[in-house]
Amino acid sequence: MTQIIRWKTGFEIELMAPIPLSRQDLAETLATQNGGTVERFFHSQSEPSKVPNHPTFDNLTHGFRLLDRSGEWVASFVDDLTLQRDCNRQIASRAGWYRVIADDGRILRLVMLHCDADATAAEILSPLANLFGTELQSHDAGMFRVVDDRGISVAICAPLPGERERPCEIITAPIESNHKGELSSLLLQAQALGFSIPQEGATHIHFDANPLCSAQAMANLVRLFGHFGPELKQLVGVNPNCVRLGPWPKELVELTESASFRAMPWPDARQALANLRLTKYCDFNLLNIAMNSREKHTFEVRILPSTLDADMVLNATALFEGLLRLCCEPQYLLDDFPESLSAAVKAAPISTAVQDYWQG
Length: 360
What we know:
alpha+beta
C-alpha cells in the first residue's frame, strides 16, 4: 500500500540490538552504506533515584548522530531507560561505555557545553572539574567524580550498567517528503543486523505543530483525542508493557472546552496551556506546543507499538494526519462531533486504502 504523508513528521522507534552489537553498530553501518558519517554526542535522560530527597537522577549516555554526505542530520541512535527487561544488568559493563550522573540537570548542561563526548571516562569530566576549581577524583570500579570547593559531589562518571549499549531508540530528523523511503532505509538495515522489538518498545510520531497553533484547532484536538483516545490505543495495538502513558488531566479538558479558550488569540491560548504544567508522559504529548519548544515544536503520538515494518508506522501516520487535519477545520467538531471513531475516520481526509486498513 502507498501512503501519502503530507505533514512534516519525525519518528522515534525503540529497538534492541542483538548481542554483541550496539546502537553504535547500526549508526556506523548506515553511514558506511550511504557515504555518511557518525558523531558521538551526549544524550540526556532522567531515571528514578533511591537517594532520599532526590526522586530522580539526570544522566548522560552515548548517542550517535548519523549525518549524510552533505553533513545533514538523518537520524540519531540513543538509549531509552524505559527499555529494561531485555538487558542483563548483572553482566560486566562493556569497555569504553559510560554514563555521567548528576542530581541537577543544570550540571549536565554544563557537561554538554564544556566536555568532549568522544573523551574517555578518565578524561570526560576534567573540564567540569576545572570550572569548579578542583581536581578530578578517581574511585574504584572505574568511577570518576567532580566535587566543588567544599567537597560536595557535583557529577560522577561511571561505567554503563550491563548491556545498556543494546537499547536503541532511532530518532529521525523531520521528514517532509519520501517518508517511506527515509524510514524504510533505517528499519531494513536494523532488521538485517538482527535488531528486535523490546518488551516495552514503542513508536512515537512527532507532527509539526505549526498547523495546530490556534485555540480552535487545539480545542478540537483535545476533544477528539480525549474522547476517542482509549479506542485509538486499542485500534493501533498499544503495547501493554509500555510505561509513561496515560490520559490528559481533567483541567486540560475543562480549559479547552470553554468558549473563552476558543476565543483566545494563539499566544494567550498557548500560555493558558503552559499554565497547566502538562507532562510529556501521556498518550498524546502537548507539552512541546504549550512550552513553544524551539528544538521540538511538535504534537507527539506516543501510543504505537514498536515495529520494524515501515508500512505499519506510515499507516498509523496517515491515520493520525487525517484526524489532525479534521481538527484544523474550525467548525466541524464543534458543530457536528462524530458519534464514533469510525465516523471520525470516515470524515477525515484519509485515503480509502488507509481507511480500509484500519476499518477493514
